[in-house]
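Collaborator request log, item 7. Partner lab (contact: R.S.) asked for a structural prediction of Peptidase A1 domain-containing protein to inform their binding assays.
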Amino acid sequence: MGVLARDDMHIITTNGGREKLDFVFGCAYDQQGQLLASPAKTDGILGLSSAGISLPSQLANQGIISNVFGHCITRDPNGGGYMFLGDDYVPRWGMTSTPIRSAPDNLFHTEAQKVYYGDQQLSMRGASGNSVQVIFDSGSSYTYLPDEIYKNLIAAIKYAYPNFVQDSSDRTLPLCLATDFPVRYLEDVKQLFKPLNLHFGKRWFVMPRTFTILPDDYLIISDKGNVCLGFLNGKDIDHGSTVIVGDNALRGKLVVYDNQQRQIGWTNSDCTKPQTQKGFPFFL
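Returned to partner:
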């Protein structure tokens, strides 16, 4: 619960100019729930949805920026990265993009045609065939999978490594596996696991549009030396038929949310600092 408040916002643009705008923002006073066990959806700090009252939309309506924002979260365990408003730091080439689908909740919905673990397709039965709804949500710490896809993924991992046994006493994440050899670092086991790929069809019917989640992103080594999976079952948060791409899957990528062109784009990046691109590659 909360209220809407109005105040002045002072911003510095990329060219050093200063702007003052009348800004409406949400002020919550009754936040409930905790990670992995929340009775209600909790909100982020900034309003970054596609709604008209979101921060980028308000800035765009006043002619300060294009209705675009993006973020780049480093893979460095010590943290780092950046976020930007407007399109100054959007790459002119090299990005993969997929359309944003309209939804009443104003979240960033897309649709993946297929989901693969390595070269194994994780099927999901339903009226829409194997396609699955996808929400990009950097406010979610982990990535949630539809119930059927999640169970198929776990089955594939356990089939490949039957000597890995679930350690129910390890509460780091819902699924933590005890290996049959000592594990101290992610490098000890990541080569045994495969990337999870979301396929969003093809661009110009030729170029595949794929969002790849590497083992580096979804595996965690617990204090007990177990291998814990950073994929969770969406059924536990009432999203049993939707992929929610969370923070752990967005690391090492520049992700752009374009409310004007109604598309989400991404490309690999070290996320050290934002860069502008002033020209075009010679092959265009």
